[in-house]
Every structure is written in structure tokens, then in C-alpha cells.
Amino acid sequence: MNLFELAMLTFHKSVIMRPQEFTIKDLENFSGIKAHTIRIWEQRYGILSPDRTETNIRKYNDKDLKALLNISLLNNLGYKISNIAKLSDDQIREIINKHAHGTNTEEHFLHMLKISMLNYDEELFSNVIDPHVEEHGLEKTFRIVIMPFLQQIGLLWQSDAICPAQEHFISALIRQKLLFHVESVKVPLEQNKRPVVLFLPDLEIHELSLLMLHYILKLRGLRSILLGQSVPSDDLKQVAQRLGDVDFVSIFTTHPSTVMVPEYLKRLTRMFMDTDCHFHFTGYNLKGIKSPDTLYISLYENIDDLLEGLNN
Does this model's pTM top 0.85? Predict the structure, then answer.
């Protein structure tokens, strides 16, 4: 599974209400600090004061989690835990903002993005992402910063360690950034190239990778047309009638389900057999699916292979 595919799986779980209560294992998974170290820091420096159950098991709240993430970040920046424990919350926030884009390790970026998510801090998110995009470009930032972050958040989401509002907040910010950069592309269109129509199948809503792909195609001078989420197959026929022969591109994450994919591909084959349109598909739900015996549909292991297929 490559980094683009990790984006597709990140927010797969149904939205349910979660208690804002965390175990020490949750804190370990979120911060990267071992539970043993957390206990020592509590005892020696009083950095956290968790409640306890009747059986003496530690229970942490949202404030504890945010505090530990801040402490972990400063510790990774070289601050001693004994000195961090003496700082006020305002002093810690001031130091974090100062280092928002002053360190280039992946761990640093991940910690900053987690803090921005927990605090619903759009400014901090931009202070982390924007300088990295300016220096390295959006595609590289997406691959080495955003996708590893989404991978970690996806794991935390599955373990109930974050709430739906935090997930919606951070995914909306990423989507905004992608759309902003898509709009900024001013590359002239290559002549004599077929339009590329990007869509997600009916009921599919995981669009971050599709938006990134839209950006890459526009940057390459292709006429990329984004239809977006949950597009019925009948609508694709109308698009082809309007535009002529096109390359359709999609990513299957949750829909159609793996067992329904063969029937979906057969339906497209029947609908487009009298055209020269071509379908290029990749995604998690295509794992183990054999390419159909048709010249109209190509399945790819990953998005990089899909991009190569479009070039050919």
C-alpha cells in the first residue's frame, strides 16, 4: 500500500460518539512516548494528573492529551523535561509557534499537525504546511507530510482516540489546501490530449487522493475535469456524450465493495462498448481483482502506475 492509498483508508469508520477519555496506551500511541516514561514524568515532574478508576487505572482527558503532545514536541526539540515542567501553557504555546516551521524532521511535522487538530488551530496548520509546500512543492508535501499524518490519524480514529469533529476539521483543512493549489495551476493545456475525467463511484466519498491527482494532472498540462464524490455510472455516459472520448479515472476505497467490483466493471463495459472511452482505476477495494478482458478498462496497483498508464 502506497502513501496515496493510505489517504483513502484514513477516515473509513462510521461516525459515532466517543467519550473524551483516554488510557495511557492512547497517550502513548498519540504522542510516541512510552507509557513507562509517561508514568515517570507524572511522578517526578507532575506534568499530568490523571483520574483513576476504582481499580486504580489511569484515565486521561482531552486536556491531558494536548499537554502531553506539547511536552513531547518540546522534548524532541531539545528541551529538558525538568525545564518544560516549569513552563506555563502560554510559554509552551509561544515556543511551539516559534518552531512551527523551524525544524524539518518528519516527527516534528507530525506532532505539530496533531496539535493543530486537537486545538482546532487553523493558523498552526498553515504555519506547518505552507512553508513546506513553498520549499518542496505540493506533491512532495502531500507524500511525506500529509499522508504519514493521515496514516497516524487513521489508526487513532480506528481506536476511538479522536472525536469526529477533530477528524472533520483536519480533513476539511487539507481539502481547502488542495483546492487552493489546484486553482493556482496556470500550466497551458497540451494540445491533442484527451480530457481526463476524475470521479468517485456512487456512495464513495474519500476524495483527498483524487484531489491530489487532479492537481498533478493539471500541472502536467492535461485537461482534468473533476466530478467529485459519489457519481452514478449513468452520469458518466452523459459526460461522454458531451465531451466525446475521454479517459475516466477513479479510486475505489469503500465503494463499490470488493465483491461488487466485477459487476460494476461489467456494467461500464456494456455502457461504453460503442465508444473509445477508457477507464483507469486503482484503490484499496481493487486488491485481488483481475483486470477484465476488455480494452476499455485498466486496473492499477497504485496511483503512480495509473499516472504512467495515462501517459501511455
Answer: no
